[in-house]
Amino acid sequence: GQQLNQSPQSMFIQEGEDVSMNCTSSSIFNTWLWYKQDPGEGPVLLIALYKAGELTSNGRLTAQFGITRKDSFLNISASIPSDVGIYFCAGQMGAGGTSYGKLTFGQGTILTVHP
Amino acid sequence: DTGVSQNPRHKITKRGQNVTFRCDPISEHNRLYWYRQTLGQGPEFLTYFQNEAQLEKSRLLSDRFSAERPKGSFSTLEIQRTEQGDSAMYLCASSLQRGFYNEQFFGPGTRLTVL
Asked: pLDDT value at position A94?
């Protein structure tokens, strides 16, 4: 079945550092989304990407949709302690101008920020 | 608060018992999704509804699982004859699907523990 490979699995950084994580797939996706999840809570949507090559920012977050539609990356600039959590990429397929329903998630990147 | 809500937040049950979870989506959203998440993994798709119609079910959704969205608003997920392997976080998400635009917003989840 479809799989998203997310790397790195975990990161330990100092406050103020920049972070980069990425996601690759053997399948083409029409939409890539990035979520953040805190312990015991549901994922929170950070950024959605709809066009190949698209670069989108949301505050200190920047994400790009790969040209091949098989990969995406997420950058966090000037990390702060509240950036701690698990970051997931998710891909969604579609056809005929309509998205299909399900999201396929990566395994997650655990981010730890040391003050 | 107009986000996705789920009840209960936690459920502890004995093996063999039936359990039912409820999800209330964001009010204008036409799609509603159920996912399951085990420790250290990303969410896995179970099923989704467009209005009251159940459009897709994962092979993960065994015969013991049933989901309904009777009036196209809230949804219930029932697990019959629970097994220890059913222990997981059950996440609900909703979206307003318009063409390819289909950003899914998650609720806080229901944590199920089967003893």
From this structure: 76
